[in-house]
Each structure stands twice: as structure tokens, then as C-alpha cells.
Amino acid sequence: MLKYYVADAFADDVFEGNPAGVCVLDEWLPLEKMAKIAMENNLSETGFAVKEKENPCTYGLRWFTPTGEIDLCGHCTFGTAYILFRFFEQNTPEIHFDTKKCGYHLIVEKHGDMLTMDFPSIMPEPYTYEEYMGDGVGAVPSEVYRTERDLVLIYDSAETVRNLKPDFSKIKEFPYGLSVYVTAKSDDTNYDFVARAFWPKINVNEDPVCGSMHCALTPFWKARLGKDKMAARSLSARGGTVYCEDCGERVKLSGRGALYLVGNILCDEAEVDR
What we know:
By secondary structure, this protein is of the alpha+beta class. Helix content is 20%, strand content 39%. The protein is built from 6 helices and 18 strands. The model is unreliable at 269-274 (pLDDT under 50).
């Protein structure tokens, strides 16, 4: 039996933000078992964390989508930290994560009801526009960028981003980009920029709030807006807010979380009884 949690990341209340499944383990399950649990949970990501006995407040961390393990996930790191702070590490202000797929060292700090993640900065580079991009996303972007993993499409208005009706079957056939990020300057004075994230290649058509996306959007919008600190709003149906700070080679991503579920997963590989 595994203790199982769901936390809404970058949410001021339940049913907002991005739900993340979280399993805190005494030891790693086989990769196939973790993949099956994530598939059964059917959330965009499920995180698995194991405390490293030699390093206080440091956990190994892996993320799985319904189709397999992924190399970086912001909202599920946030959700995992939220659960650890609430149930396992109430007396520490900081949790470290050693990610097992790509070797990132991630830090999450607690400041009152806010959590702040320290993530790598990923500056996107210009990329050539192709007609299939506008056909798949639903509108022709003004500019196109890419990271090593994803596409970033820039639009001239937040309203365009808000009203996009993507053809996910077409996005799934894009030859480049595990995901497609769409973004524009905000038309709401409470926020600096808006964004949406589409991941049909991993069977997540739209991620409600994508944390890792802001590793690229933070340095991009800093260069455009001239601001180190910015507020970003997800224009997905659920919505959510990420407070971004550009720190050079790192970015800090902050927000609030909400607890949705505490339960048990019946599993024959391990037992965690907290």
C-alpha cells in the first residue's frame, strides 16, 4: 500500500492550478511500476520522492506522465514539495531535490503560504516558422523560438492566446517540440505575461499550469520587458499564477498550493505507512 497525495500547484484554492500526484517512498519502486501508477493516476505528472539518508532534507525525485518518465516538471516538483512541507518536513524552510533522469539539483523554499522553486534558466533561441505551426495551434505566431526540448510561439495579444483552439492531432505530428508553449504580453495590469502549454505528444492536451515552461519564458520576457520580477498568468480553463524572478543562470518560480486528496494506492511492490 502506498500513501498517495494530490496537490494543486500554483493555485490559490482547490480546483485551480495544476494537480500533481505525489508518492513519498521509503525506497524506489521498479521503474515499470512507477510508470504504471502514473498511467493509472492519469494526471499530467505523478512525482515519486525518496529521502536521501546521508543528506538531511534532500530527496531523490522522478516524474512520470501517463506515457513515461520525463526530464523536468515544475508543477510536480512544486506539488511534491508542498506535500513534504505539510506532512514530512514541517520544521525545515528548504527542501532539495536530486532529479534522477537528468541530474538537475532543484531547491524549493517555503515563505509563509508561498513556495519558491529554484530552477535552471533556459533561454529559447529563434526558430524558423513553418505553416504547420499556425495550422496546429490555431493562429499564426508573430515569432517562433525553441529550447532543446520545446517550441515557444509568441503572439501579439493575450486575447489571441486566450482564444486559441488547437488541433491537438496536428500538434502531435509536429516534427519538433515535445511540447508547444504559446505566450503574449498580458492585457491585465495584474500580470506581465500570459501563457498556455500544449503536450499532446505525452497525451496531455493542455497542461493547466506548466512550471518548467517558465524556465524559458522568464528570461525571454525579462529581455522584452526589462523586469527581473514578473507575474505570469496561465490562460487554461483552470488558470493559475506563477511569480517569476530572473536570477541569471537560475530562475525562481513562486506560487501557492492547495491540498486536494490524501489516499492509498494498493500496490504489491512496497508498503508505505505514514
